[in-house]
Amino acid sequence: MTFRQVLLTSAVALALSACGQSSAPAADSTAPAAAPEAAAAPAAAPDAAPTAAPESATPTKPATVANCATTIEANDQMQYNADSITVPASCTQFTINLKHVGTMAANVMGHNVVIATQANMEGIDQDGAGVTPDHVKADDARVIAHTKVIGGGESTSVTFDVARIKDGGPFKFFCTFPGHMTLMQGSIQVQ
Ligand code: CO
Questions:
Q1: What pLDDT, in 10s, does the model give residues 134-155?
Q2: Is 78 helix (H, G, I), strand (E, B) or coil?
Q3: Exposed (0-12), middle (13-18) or buried (19+): which is 95, by Cβ within 10 Å?
């Protein structure tokens, strides 16, 4: 009797230990099951990529900056020669010189430089249309700084406090001569 009980007991013990061992691989097998879900995440990336690309219009023509100033050229093809101005953080004031290197008159192919937040560009451009001679509404509080409109062969400049383009951007420089802003604009930032 006692001998059989020992055999039974040991048999149960073996069975329990066998179950214990077999349950361990079962727990491990749940880990690979989670992997397919993680692998599904990258599938969403291709959808997001095409929409992000057009927004990141990275500047390709940085303006040359020296002594807290730069010179931007504008031509008869309705173009600036720069699409990005980086103002050194060490500058208290900054000057933008605008040089019209074309030959067309100011009332036909006039150019200016206006500085404002990107959010205010459209409103400034619309309200400035037809306001002669400079195509900027009088006392427009959205305008941080602007030059007058010039024609071929002329030059002008504007100087402003750098503090005004440090916070609340992004900031842009652009031409408000009617129809020009789409082509004539660039980013301006303090760095
Ligand atoms: Co223009």
A1: 999 999 999 999 999 999 999 9
A2: coil
A3: middle
**Across-strand partners of 100?**
74
Rounded distance from Cα 178 to ligand 1 centre (Å): 8
Does residue 57 belong to any structural domain of this protein? no
Domain of 19 in residue numbering reads as: 3-52
Confirm whether 59 is domain-assigned. no
Q: Give the C-alpha separation, 36 to 65, whole Å.
A: 52
* Per-residue pLDDT reduced to its tens digit, 4-13: 444 444 444 4
Ligand 1 center to residue 182 CA distance, Å?
Answer: 10
Interval between CA 78 and ligand 1 midpoint (Å): 6
141 Cα: distance to centroid of ligand 1 (angstroms): 21
Query: pLDDT tens digits for 107-140?
Result: 999 999 999 999 999 999 999 998 999 999 999 9
In this prediction the pTM is 0.71
Same domain, 20 and 95: no
Question: Which residues pair with residue 96 across a beta bridge?
Answer: 70, 158
The Å distance, Cα 77 to ligand 1 centre, comes to 9
In-domain check, residue 60? no
Q: What pLDDT score does 59 carry?
A: 81
| Count of domains observed in the chain | 2
For residues 119 and 85, membership in a common domain is answered with: yes
